[in-house]
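Hi X.,

You mentioned you wanted examples for the new student's onboarding notes, showing what a folding record looks like when two proteins sit in one file. Here is a clean example. The first protein comes first, with its sequence line followed by its structure tokens.
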Amino acid sequence: MVLLLVFVLLILFIRSPWGQDIIVNKVVDYVSGKTGTKVEIEKLFITFAGGIQLEGLFLEDTKGDTLLYSKSLEADVALSPLIFGNTFNLKKLQWTGVTGTIERNAASEKFNFDFLIDALVPTDTAATATASEPMQIDIGEIDLSDFKLTYDDAFLGIATKMRLGRLYLDADAIDLETMRFGLDDLQLTDSEVQYEQTKPFATEDTTATALPYLWADDMRIENVRITYNSAPDSIAAAISIGVFQLELPKADLAENDIEVGTLALKNSDFSVALKGNDASRSEPTPSATNSFEWPEFFIKVAELNLQNNTIAYRYNEQSPKAGAFNPEAIALSGFALQANDITYRPKQIGLKLERLTFSEKSGFRLDNLAFDATVNDTSVSVSDLAVQTNNSRANGQLELEYPALDQLIETPENSAV
């Protein structure tokens, strides 16, 4: 009877605002005392069912700068499978108003958060790890908004900034053991990522890893900008996505088997700028010719819809000019492509191109290109061909036969039209 009374009083204490305040103060004082840095929590509420509400979390680093600030976090974690089983079930997570900075200087391998690990994680390494089954992870809805994150790694020469407007994710399945990941819904909106690489990577990781099996019922990206600048590779790129939509029934990357329902891209801009030594682009030395081999991929795309996009490419800061086409300075505007029933498997390609249009800065304009095409190892068939530019127009069909595709590549004069 006494134990029951103590248990009830303990529950009432933990669930009361007074008890929660005491717990928060104890946690703040403990972390602050161990690290010697400022720690603040405005509100923390935890339920026995696994509900967590955290508001106004602030952590500073050893220099007095903001390491992490979180305005509001609400989570619902199933405790029974975690305590009595081997399952982490995050039913729901809503997190907003986050500012975080991770950094390390060029002369150190320690990050600005390592002091937390040194202070709070036990240093006893005598205990030996026991083998256990991988934890099962179940993820429900995740809703993140208003994130401002900075990663500045002078040691590796990486500087990244991310401003996240909103990321909403509703997971269908996450299995780390079998590498199967499925999404019911994913939405990324009003966000920006900046990436800069100033040093070459020292070594490449050649460790073999299992490739995942992916699927997504509905993936949508709107108003997202990405900039990439790599000084070692002399590459600068910028992407501005207006609307991107993807329905992905299957992407078995281990078997190179990909099936796309719909892929749409609208009102988006892509630009790539390269720098290099012209001498390094001289014609390669002739070598022994290898026979053509069909890549082992299996691809199906039901619908591809690109509308009102721009594509730009520049080499060594050259600029496109009206009246003269320059392959080292290309600027396409109004790029649109609509295609259906795209299929690829070794020795077989199928495509129904409904529409391809664009304008190039030089003045060339492709008003329309459309055709149905099939390609196999011995023939090419093009029907319902329609081509129209700002200067010409053509219609027709094409039948091309050859002994094998690799022979067509090596000796095209032996093919029959």
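Then the second protein repeats the pattern, sequence line and then tokens:
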Amino acid sequence: MGLTKVKGSVWDSKDNGLGINVKDFGAVGDGTTNDYDAIIAARDYALTNNIALVFPDAVYAFSTTLEFGFQDLKVRAIGEATLKHTGTGIAVSLDAGAVTGNAFRAEFIGFNVEGNANTTDAIFVRSMHHLKLKAKATVACDTGLRVNFAVLSKFDFSCSTNTGTFTKLPQDGIILDQRGVGEQVAYCTFNNIILEGLPRGGQLLGAIGNLFVGGAIEGGGVGLDFGTGSSVNKMIGTDFELNSTADIRISGSSNYNEFYSVDTGLLFYIVAGNANKIFGGQHESVRADAGTENALIHTIVNRNGSGTLAENTPLGKTSVRNNGAGFNYQDTGTYTPLTTAGVTVGASPFLYENTLPYPIELFVSAGTVSQVTFKRGALELVKATSTDMSIYLDPSDECRITYSALPIVNAVPR
């Protein structure tokens, strides 16, 4: 893919349009010479003249953080250019402001960012909106990609031990967080994110409404941590496997996240959080320790035959299929793992309230029952005038049983 000189320092690429070639400003690209000054000079020219900054295929060493966080600045690699960080701290930054300030419509496309033992973030993004970023982090850093406040941006990123040897593994492939209160990473698209062989694939600490499509997060400790303040995110078709602690871990106030056709090979773990939904996909083990209204819908569990479904807090379940032995599910495929509970019946008329956070069905049998009523608030309706019946109760619904001979009552979670 060649560059054609148009006029002065302006070059044309058939794929990328007009742009400034950093080599025309003295960048050597031999992986040893410090090209920082040349890159910054080319960047400033590109900003002044409102044209793209172009890096031909080469290895560009630099000793100081490269800052590309400017409105409308397009930074593009021709082929795969490597930006080799030889200094300390952040390697490449797209930062429009720590407290105030925002930039729109910037691009950072096609780069391999190579860190070293003193690199903190290979790529740092803050206050950048409608950004397009396509890059990978290699060799060494603490974090591959850190994003603090971005809206409606597109990311295609990889940090993988399968693309080269790391001399220092990043602790996290990606971290999504807020700049300040209410300034989260919001409604961005993460396409084909690949995070492999890392202690933790990534953390969502302040992420709202983002879409993750495809990709793989595997071969590490925890795949992806959904922390406090990460809600309404959607993940579609991402593969998790060969992680040693958990594939997906949801904790804090992570609410209303949805997972569609996502496959996990070890554990989908809901530590806390409410109304998170798993639609389809195959999972070895699913565990819920706290939270309400979390649910499995048309999902396969026990995919490899040695998994568990551990409900320390109840999960809603619709057409959950057991792919091995050990789970008790109905022929319809609806999995009902919670234990039926016997109810201690008090004096007639006995009033029972569903105090659980999920629906139950109350079965009344034996004894001599003259009337069973359903009660919701001030409304009370006659359900039956004899024994051997059942009544469905949502949370806080009540049932009144009038009898002359003690009946048997059992509560079955639904």
